[in-house]
Amino acid sequence: MKLQCSCGAKYAFDATPEMLQNPVKFVCPACGLDASDFVNELIRQEFGGQFTPPPPPPPPPAPASRLKISHEAAPAAQAAATQETAAASKFCAKHRERATEQCAVCHKPICPKCMEMFGYFCSPLCKGKAEAQHLNVPVFAGRKDLVEGQFWRKTGLIMGGLIGAVVLFFGLWIWYAWFGSVPHPYFSVRFEDADRGYFGRSQLVGKDKDQIVFLHGGTLARYDLKTKKPVWSDELITKQEIDAAIKAAYEEDARLNEGNGFKAHRNADDIEREARQDLQSEMRLLVSGQNIWVGSGQKLTRYDWDTGKAAREITLPEADGELVETGDELQMIGEQSVTHISLTSGDSRIEQFGPTGAATVIAQNDGGGGAGLPGNGGGIGDQPLDPKKVEAQAQNLNIQGRIALPAVLSNARHEQQLEDALNDDPKHPHPKGSKGPPADAEQFQLVPGKTGFVEFGVQMLEENMVTRSAMKAPPKKSVLDGNLNASQTGEAANEILNDMQRNAGGGTGGNVTEDQSRYKVTVHLPDGSSPDWTGEVIGPPQLFVLKTVNVIAAGKSVTVLDKSNKKLWDASLTYTVSSEGGGGLSRGESRYGAGPCVEHGDTLYVFDQAVLTSYDLNSGNARWRLPSVGVVGLFFDDKDNVYVNTTTGNPDDIKYSRQIDVNRDTQAVLSKIDPKAGKILWSIKPGGYVSYLSGKFIYVIDSYDPNPRDEDEMNDMTASMQKPAFLHIIRIRPSDGKVMWDYYDRDRCPVNWVFDGNSIELVFKREVQVLRYLTL
Fold this sequence. Notes:
alpha+beta, four-stranded antiparallel sheet
């Protein structure tokens, strides 16, 4: 029997039947391969599987069969026989496993393990021969190198995809954080210098907010935001109206100058600019769906959505009313009447309230109001200075302006003294102010609310005006007596300004007069469903018409009535309730939040000059109090958390409300409050007041314009001493109060702004602009 080892060595031996009983052990001397099982299998095949049992008893062991090994080359016939034997074999010579294929070159049997290594070849030698002879041999897909290559290709693709995804993610994140999430101009309309607008408003409309309607000065227009093209544009202020206003201004100047021995110094350009501003200030825009209304004086006009032409004009019984949208109805709220206009048909009806006659607005003299820095909006004459206005203007002076401020103020004070001396001339007496209505006259005011209207009557029963000093004593030693240096300019300016403050109004400029008079108030429900409620209060009263209650605030007290005029409870406050804000007798809500009396859920929030208090709406029990000087408004989120717009002020700012300190920098503060316990969740100084809060959007805005009316002259305070105009918008994250982004416009200040989700509408003097950004 002949065979060939996988290493190429050839062997021959004699096969005998005894080898069936005594298996042969065969090890290739050349490569050391143990082929015993293979040889014994060949022997069994050779003898047809026959087996002769050994004769008992077994003879003594015979010498082991000797295997004759030949290293000589076999003849060609023997090689052919060997190949036939190998081909007929069902086992692989290398791995001793059952063969499934034959080598495509030498036709040796090959098993799956061979195919994993070389495919349809038994060895690299046969594979090389096939490549050299360019044999067309199929590729075995299960070959180990191919499988590994395919695995690593897949691995590379997966890893490349993961790396690409990571790079794409961080690239998108960086783009979103630095560009996409920061507002950028999305729409803009510019106007010529001659078409400057000092008043205006805009509103995004349409299902996708793809239309904008704006009133810029006297221009009413509608634009398509997708195409950035105008649909229509109309000029609402005619040349005839401007000419009539200019003529009226000249006549007024002539009347004032008659007999005074001097003439007004306004030129024709100033008069025309002021006439345009007066006409623009009377216009009010309201847009509801595709209904566009503009109110001006006692005229309300509806403009067609498609053409912009005037479609309907309604004459109102009262001028200067408030436009309010309630459902499908537009209401023009006057002092003693409400004009109801259907937004769909344009039909109108007038509803009269209360007695005939002009109503009065009762304001509290708490030391607020007054003029600004001399040469920058007032400060000369009988009118006292407003410390907050003066300090704010001083903070917006540049370095040169702050250094020159004492000299400018000294010059202004000298002019004040000269004017006072001239005014002592009996030929030029001071005009006397007119007295108010008699103490026993009852005045009525129509107060609007979200649920209807309430008539509010006020009658003074006993007058009691308490005057007190609201300034600190002057310094014993004047800083002006020595040589001033740059570090003392603020102190010198304070001394001059406070001296001017004390001397204003004939020496009463440092005093405040608090109204502690006794008033009778009457709350009348127009539908007559309940009897009137009448009571007495101390201090000028205000009425706040809220969702489920009506609140009377007067001096340091609040009285709460239900909607049937039944008194629920009253409470005393620490300080006086401010007469400013979005409620009471004033029209229009503050853009910095609701207050000073706000109903939210089962809670009534009231803030006075220095304390914010949370009351149980039904019982009047105080849940918590938060000391905070200068609260200007409240906002609420969808979890009822309270966001408070307040300041860094202290009680001394209330006690010495007339004292001026140009170095005092009272900053705006935003605090998030837990509504149940009154705990401050976070508090920040964002640089301005919150002007919009809705869902995840919180916007803080701060702006400044040194010359809002573009006056040609600024008396003593020149434009070079002022900081330039600016706009600063900040988005705050509701969870922790962190700044998400801030947007600066360092060259101009808007005359109006509107926030709407991720859109910001800005109306400038020479441009209407929409900012937008992406949000997750």
